[in-house]
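[agent] plan:
  1. take the single chain provided in the ticket
  2. run structure prediction with default settings
  3. attach structure tokens to the ticket
  4. add a short note for the reviewer (M.T.)
[agent] executing step 1
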Amino acid sequence: MKSRFLIFALLALCCVLGGCIYDDEPECCPSEKVAVEIRIAPENPNHVTRSTDENTIRDLNFHLCDKTGSVVLHRYQAAATLRFECLPGDYTLYVVANAHTDMGNMPAEIPETYTVPTPSENDDLVMTAMQPITIPAEAGTVLLPALQVRRAVARVDYDITVDESVSDIEIRSVQAMNLPTHYRPFVEGFRPSDFLDCELVAAAEDGSSVQGSFYMLPCCQGVRSSITSPEEKNPDNAPDDAACLHIRAVRGGKVLDYYVYLGENDTSDFNVRPNTVHTLHIRILGDNDLRLRQYAVEVAMTTRSTPQDGFMSEGLDGALDVRLSGHYEDMQVRGILSLDEGDATCCMFDGKHPGVPLQYDLSSGALECTAVYFPETFTRDNAQLQFTLTVYDKYGEVGRYAFEYAFAYVLQVYRVWHNGPRSVFGRIGSEDALGIVEYETLTAIYDAVYCTAEGCTLVAEPNDGYAVDCWCGHPEHQGELSYEPTFHYDPARMQQTDTVYLFFTPAAPGMETTFAMDRTELSAYDRAILDFTVAQPGYDGTYTVKIEGLPTFFRERYMDQRPVTEFTLPGNGSYWLRVRPEAVGENPFVVTVTDENGNSRSFRSSLLGIKTVSYFSLTVGKAPGTGLDIVVECTDPVLSDLTLTIRTNIRITGRTGATVTRTCETAVTLEAGTMKGRETHVLDLSAGDTFSILDSEMIFTRTTSDNGMVEYRNSN
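[agent] step 2 finished; step 3 output follows
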């Protein structure tokens, strides 16, 4: 039997915990504590299979132990950042991810007794880490190195087929056997004592193949150096509790039981370690021949800078590292690196731009590739970088390793600070920011706003009874930037400052606004009527109305006129607006009414834009003289000028009877708001020539309207 065996070292997820509780202090340490911070972002691993997300971290148990093994710090949480104060000294970090329970202040004996249970079908994968650390006595905040957690399970993927030369062999089932029921990740050299067998997995109806995958706890049963060939790696020579695949097959009247043992080679090794992927391609060649080949692929990406909230504020400077181990020499292993997203001119791998996929020979067993990405500015077109290393051998694709990075500028918007208001009077939102993440400390509440070089517009959302006072560049209500509810952040203009302070003020208590719309789902040719009322007892002044959002608004109920974004109302009363959608899907908007005293009220809503289809027809006939009369018509008016290319094939017959075929192209334009376009194409014919029209076709310069709400189709 012939087979291939692959072990892939999974990319370890990084996680960070937050908070601390001091129970004890290490001996012989200074009495002054230092501030410590850990900020780590997870790497982007390559494989996600079945219904289990191999990258999910839902909860974390964090333990910091001193030299005696005593716990000086413990947290159970899902936070991504840990900030704490601690005495300088040497410690050991223990991390357990996805335990789904608070493990408490772990005593000294728990590292030896903590047990990972058998994984179920859709369980979150348990991950662990143990790392000695040294906290120096430094001024300021001590940044600890990244802590990576490793999955406490291995994954086994199998693909079993029958060779065509022995097609009379029929596979019936496959069963995983001798899988450990428990695992102690913090015990070096741990060997399980209890095992189980999985349920049978039925083969294909024709018995030619069976495929599947499963997770298992590590099972390290050592090495049998006396085994020197794959044929000897069988039940007679294997350790009693070695993990294996039991393949049941039949050939005529014979029952065939194949036992394929897992391990790090195809002969003497019976070790299945955590955080690995075992891929078995097994081909049955006969009654008693089952051969395996194996090698391991490990791909890792390291970077100098660390993302915050999933964004990097500076370019990428890192290294892509590939390591092979095992029997790979004769497998013709190679890698192809492709740029999936990003600006190739700003990206280099070992000094080469990935304008076309880069190929690497991995037959030496190693690849160290520098990776840099430094756009001049982070724009919407280049702020996302994604590249993939695809590993192949002579049998085909082995695995895909995808890496993705997001780049942005960051603005901090403080809504509560130590010398500012003590309560939260509102929040901020943005339609075009890449992300907004709220942070809360003991002295402040602020939002980290991420955007590209094009900037983003922030919208202050006051709580009931409050209005926007001012956006300022200084916490003492100085350096006014805007008195409007909106503020546009321009990274280029604000290079010298990345912090803004938002002030709210009590609004007029008697001012009220109400609104209603007659429709909320519209096509590009429909209009909704928005009725709204402004009321403020005792007020006889005017109001300013400001409209922001995706739809287009008109003042009059029935007559088309120019769109409006800001206008004045004479005073209290009821008014209306016509609303037109400008995109498929949600069209959000906000209407803000402000009196002469600066008091404001806002209401928000949204329209649902629905895509429609306009059908185009083409008529081509003979014009007077020697020309073509071309008419294009559509079922609905075009929203903006649209030019089509009309390609007509004609046959020209000369005075001698000879014929020739010619293709004529004509541009026909339909002006905005029209349903018809017409052009004449004059033919260059010789005297006495005649012509006939063979066929014609329309070529659209675009297949939808500019806003994407109307699709253009050929009705012919």
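[agent] step 4 note for reviewer: Residues 650 and 693 are 5 Å apart (CA to CA).
[agent] ticket updated
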